[in-house]
Amino acid sequence: MDCPNCKTWNPDDKEVCWRCQTPLPKPKPPKKRTQTGGFPSWMWMLIAAFFAMTLLGQCLFSPLNVPQ
Ligand SMILES: [Zn+2]
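^ thats the input. predicted complex w/ zinc ion below
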């Protein structure tokens, strides 16, 4: 990481510049994923809703869609 004051390169784990002692901005830590498998929970809801709609559609609406 380059120092914002003197543009000197510093190791990423340094908190202050080794040359001018300017506090270095900390790199953003990677976001930890709480869901298992990195799959968003709303996706499971969407899949469940899709299957529920499909099953309901087959049970309720398929007799009505018979042509003639
Ligand atoms: Zn510096």
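Residues 1-26 form one domain.
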